[in-house]
Predict the 3D structure of the following.
Amino acid sequence: MSKFGFISIVGKTNVGKSTLLNKILERKLAITSRKPQTTRNRILGAWNHEDIQAIFLDTPGVHTGHKKALNKYMNQVAMHALKNVDLILFIVDRDRWGEEEERIIKQLNGSKIPVILVINKIDRIKNKEDLLPTIEKLKAKFDFEEIIPISALKNKNAPKELYEVINNYLPHGQPHYEEDFVTDLSKEFFISEIIREKAINRLGDELPYSISIIIDALKEDKKLLSISATIYVDSKSHKPILLGKKGDMMKSIGTAARKEIQFEYDKKVFLELWVKVKKKWTDDVNWISQLGYDLKKYEN
Ligand SMILES: Nc1nc2c(ncn2[C@@H]2O[C@H](COP(=O)(O)OP(=O)(O)OP(=O)(O)O)[C@@H](O)[C@H]2O)c(=O)[nH]1
Ligand SMILES: [Mg+2]
C-alpha cells in the first residue's frame, strides 16, 4: 500500500534545516548560509521513493528578539508548520537548547503529530562519548517518538534511520503529485534566492537581514536566460557596502549568481543587477507582500 504525507522541518535558526532538506532531496532546493535567518518562507520539496511520496516543508528558523514585520511573518510560517502535517522533524544543533526550542515545545504539547528529534552537527562533537549525555538530556524535554543524531553537512547521504522513520510514520495514502513534481516555487523565486545567497555569503553580519531581491524582468528562449534584478537595501548607508569599491562587491555577487543559475537551468545566463534603497522595508507589510510573502496565509 502506498504512503503519502507532509513532513515539516522545524527548529531554531541556523541549526541546518535547509541543509537537511537538500540532503534528503539530493539537490539544492533551499539556500543555506552560516548566518542566521537565511530561509524566509516555506520551501516545499517533494520526495518520491518506491511507493512513498513525502512532501517536505522547510521553514524559517524560529527566532526571538527581532520585532519587525518580516520576523513576525517568518516565525508565523515556522509555527504554522507545527500543525496540519503528518510528521515533524525537530532539528537541534547538538545539545543547544534555548528559548526558541521551548517555544516550539509549547506549541507541540497536546498535539498528536509524531515528533522526531534530529540532533544535527554531530561532526562538531569531538568526543563521540559526549553524544550519549546529549541524547539523555534532550530525551527529557519532550516525548519524542525517536531521536536521530546526524550530520546534514558531512554525511554523504541522509541517514537510513531517517528514511525508516518516514516509512514508519507516514499514513497510507495515494500520491497527490506527479512523480516529477519537485516544488511549487517559481523560477523567479529560485533565481532571487540564488542571488540572495551569494549576497549573504559576501556581506558582513548585519546586511543579510536587510536585503531583498526583486526580479524585474525574466526572458527565456532555448539557449539564453536573460534576467534583470534589483537588490534592495533598507537604508542609504548600506548601498555603498553592497556596491563595494568600484562596484566589485556587486560584480562578485553577480558572477557567482550567474554561474549557479547557468548550472541550474543548463543554459547561458545574462544577469543584470541593480541596487536600490527601500527604507525600512523589513517593517513594511506592503513591501513584504510584494516580495511574495503571504502574511495572511500563516496568521493562525
Ligand atoms: N558542521 C556542520 N555544519 C552544518 C551542518 N548542517 C548545517 N551546517 C551549517 O550550518 C549553517 C546553517 O545551515 P542552514 O541549513 O542554512 O540552517 P537553517 O536551519 O536552514 O537556518 P535558517 O534558514 O536561518 O533557519 C550553514 O553554514 C551550514 O553549512 C552539520 O551537520 N555540520
Ligand atoms: Mg534555512
In short: The first helix runs from residue 17 to 25.
